[in-house]
Amino acid sequence: MQVEKNKVIGISYRLKADNGETGMQPWEEVPETAPFLFLVGTDSVFPKFEEALIGKSIGDEFSVFIDFDNAYGDYYEERKTVIPKSNFKQQGTEKREPLKVGKVVPMQDEKGNQIKGEIIKINYLGVHMDFNPPLAGYDLSFEGKIISIRDAEPEEITHGHVHGLGGQNH
Question: Is the pTM of the predicted complex or chain greater than 0.90?
């Protein structure tokens, strides 16, 4: 069986990232014992990444370089903002746990879309948040292996994501 549209594949990989100044630095590792699963053809991974895996079989290794434009894009200063501390209060009490530097907090934009922001500073002005993806502006390098391939279930294809072991159950 080969990687193609409407297949659920499991991959292990080592990700390195380069911000343009430090060279490739280790960022993340996904082991063979707990592979990353995704449904091919649903835009759940970078298109250039998926293209590099098409046609591969179980046990095949891969090496994929994705420049920042084809990954998370540029880093934008305007995606940083200060939010009043009062926005983090609920029922009159301040939620202390989310207000820690480095914490990633799920939020909603003005249109109700789910977004995540990292707390980068807290001071008298409020909570300073960065809504750039953590790897915005970075070139990425993946080294990995195809661990599993299976036909997607009809429900997975309809929903556009993996269900079951390692995936979403609902």
Answer: no
